[in-house]
Amino acid sequence: MSKVLKEAGLLKSRARGRLDRVPQDIRDQAVALYETGKTADEIADLGLHPKLTRSIVFNELRRRGTSTRRAGARGVFWDREDDQKKICEKYELGMSGSALADIYQCSRDAINKVLTAAGISIRSFDEATGLKWADKSGRIFHMRSLWEIKTAKWLDDAGRVWHYEHCAYELGGGRNYTPDFWVYDGGDLVELIDVKGWLRPASADVIELFKTEYSHLPFVMWDEPELRERGILDIKIDGEDVTPGPSYPVCVSQVTDKEKDRIAEVYSSGKTIRQTAAAVCRSHTIVSQVVNERGIIRSGASSNRGRVPQELRDRAANLYAAGDSITTVAEKTKLSRDVVWGEVKRRNLVRKRAKTK
């Protein structure tokens, strides 16, 4: 059939066929929205028509001979030298390309084009997210951005006692949140600092949840204005002091015996794998490998049980004994199935499965 239609000159291209499935008035509306500054993705997400996709929008624009915007035009910085200069300055100060893309509402490629045109080399993944830095005491940390390293140096210069990503706080919905810096005074926690170059909506939601559930903690967030006001962004970091850290997870053979002893000590004190990893600044995989190697690994249920109040564990056991399934008990108590199952086994309450006919 296709061959016959092609010989008769009646075969439509796939793009044209798709266009015909979207009413003309919807396509007119999409083109009008594009000309007002909206992106093809945003137009497709409006739900004007079930068949209206990003490709349909661009195909309609090409059919009409309408020129599409260059990459970065959504952020209106291609034709603005001052915006291009700001992008380069922020990137050289340590802001990530992803954060800049969010700020200027464009793609990472558009940001990279501006940086390349200005002769600025693009940081590799390790250089951007796995920076290894030693503080004045010789402690080695694997930090996630240059701004965090500058903050650490600022705290050192100010004579503050601090730790980096000391532990994760559990939030509702099974999520966790780990602030960047724990600052102490005389052994007391006086500040929890989180350094943010750009606050994404998802991060903002988690932070608000953390502030609500842990309102008693002295939490503060330092964004670009706060960092600039304190002079942190003006701090110069020597290239020799900052090197790309190992990609996670690293092989356990790269961990020294001294570090393994420290991991075993922290884990044996009752902390979970996640808490131990945060305390020793290593990945969860490395901690698991080390404690397995030392033969001190605990089951997931045993590890989590210590963090669950006794009355909640009693309620879970009673619900199971009354006939509820493990899944039902987990849903009613908001505990994980592993914790419920571990508590049931510990109390010898495991029921035999009913035989199927």
Task: Please summarize what this structure is.
This protein is 49% helix and 10% strand. It is α+β, with helices and mostly antiparallel strands.
What would your notes on this structure say?
With 357 residues, the chain is α+β, with helices and mostly antiparallel strands. The protein folds into 5 domains: 2-64, no CATH class; 73-122; 127-244, Endonuclease, Chain A (3-Layer(aba) Sandwich); 252-297; 304-346, Arc Repressor Mutant, subunit A, CATH 1.10.10. The protein has 19 helices and 9 strands. Helix 14 packs across helix 15, helix 17 (310-321) runs antiparallel to helix 18 and helix 18 packs across helix 19. The longest helix has 13 residues, at 81-93. It is extended and about 75 Å long. The two termini are 55 Å apart. The model is unreliable at 11-17 and 244-250 (pLDDT under 50).
